[in-house]
Amino acid sequence: MKNRRTRWYRSLALRLLFIFWALLSVTAASGYLLAVWNKPKAELKPLEPEIYQTLQPLLSDALTFHSLQPGRLIAGDYRVAAQLSVQGSEKLLMDEMLRVSHGSTLLRMLGQDSPQQIPLDERLLMGPFELNGNKILVTKPLGIEEQVDRERLEAESTRARILTLLVGSGLLAVLLGIWLIRPIRRMILAMREVADGSATPELKRLPKRGDEIGELARALSQGALDLATSRDAQRRLLSDVSHELRSPMARMQVALDLADCNEDDPNWQQLRRDTERLSVIIERILSLSRLENGLVDLNHESLDSGELVQQLINDMCYQHPEVRERLLRHGSNWPVIDTDPELLRLVLENIVRNALHYTEDNVELSCDDYGKGCHIRIRDHGPGVDESTISKLFVPFYRGDPARHHKAGVGLGLALSHRAAAVLGGELKAHNHSEGGLEVVLDLPKSQPEQKE
Amino acid sequence: MRHSVLLIDDDTEMSVMLTELFKRESVDLSVAEDGVTGLDKALNGDYELILLDVMLPGIDGMQLLQRLRQQHRDTAVLMLTARGDDDDRVMGLELGADDYLPKPFNPRELIARVRALLRRTPNTTMQNESLNVCGIVLDPATTEVKCDDAELILTPTEFDILRCLMQQAGQMVSKDQLSVAALGRKMEPFDRSLDVHISNIRKKFPAKPDRIQTIRGRGYRLIASL
Cα B117 to the chain's mean position, in Å? Predict the structure, then answer.
């Protein structure tokens, strides 16, 4: 399947551009709308009688009235804002500043039948006052109290505006984030699954999109499938080859027994040892592949770990009487655990065998119980392992010390233990003991998780 | 006395070598290379032991064993199973195999197992007095077993296990002891054969299968009286 390139019109760059643009315009628009909505509505109100009474006497004289041009003070703070005279040619004069900012309001006021008042910025506009068809509008600065009132209102509306803006843009940002981040998170999850070695990763939840993220998802999906296939093929090859090697190996063993050879002949003994060794390698590869492919059925039982370890020690001493002095079990608080005895024994046996094999001194087994699980420790008194290679101990076919190759086992024992420990829901770790020697620790839960590997 | 053993296995080269190997041990080995011939030989020949491979062309080892037991042939059967295939082992034992040996095997191990199974054939029974415990009557002379007056049809291995338990009724008999008595060998780690045989015997009891008690991890006990 070819991974199609992202088309330009679906490209993430374009989408992002569009989204940011949309985001900005929506924010701006919402800001503007809020500003409009929240502006305190200046409303026409009938003129207060006191003011009317104050002004009326001054405006009853026709001559004076005619001379009241915009800008003139009438009395006190009262100043003329506009004048409409109908004598001769009709003429409208307005205060220059007010005309610029509130021209329409002035005209509306002049059209009123009876005197009204309206707040304009820091002033109160009043009118029209009429005499012989001539009209004037008057302004008066607002009092301190009125100004404070206005400012408070203004401040409140500004705060509300900022809050709404923040919430609105935050909401948009969250939406954008979800749109961008969610597909990426899904890909991360899928990738983890692939990394964990799933042969058939669950790839259905990968985002299906036309942009670069979709392209990445498709590329990832293809890569994951290829990887899983090749990993599977590799495992299967190893397993198949081992299967095929089994029958000839078995025949070789019988043939060796039948061969008319002197049993003391070193060549014959070598042949015999190597045949044994080869069959052990084959068996271990097959066990490993069964464990890795989850083909092992677990038989849970509650068992006394101390008894199992003692049994293991007894069996090993029986097979190899020379280790009787070296193999020690410490402590008495070995817990009862719910696990698969066969696998647990496999884990421990390989580690113990390894320790006995690679070191000369004692090998000690101990256990500490920490409630939910226990740590079973297998410690030797050898030279330990170089810190840099300690993590490779559990890699199949890795050997700690190539110089001792001839004496070594097959390099699969610890890998097998490691895998089996994982199948049991536990973990195997190795570290150099502070007082020398290598310590391998099996961290094992006391009860098995329900799901199977 | 020469023993006669039938090997049913499709690996010709192996069969040739095993024939030679067994000849040295004074055992006559006949070979059948597929299931049909194998079943035919097993039903019509007079063999003391059958070595049965599970993977066979024609009818496989399991089916062959089932048909053999359906005909009430209680010839001892040693199953040769692929190592690690637990299901095969348990299934084989449940179908009435006496023991199993995982492939590939060490030839000496095979010979030891064969010898053990041949040694315990019924005609070598030493104690002949009849036993009567817990509602079970066992007569070694006629190899007849009755439980609550119903006849039980047991394989020789099951017969030996039951007899061993009856001889020590009321006491715990260790798994090792039972294994030696019935299979001629000690228990191996995670050996399931004895457990399956015991479970087979329990299934054959007309009532009260728990007259054989399990002593966890150690052995079994037949209760002295009901």
Answer: 8
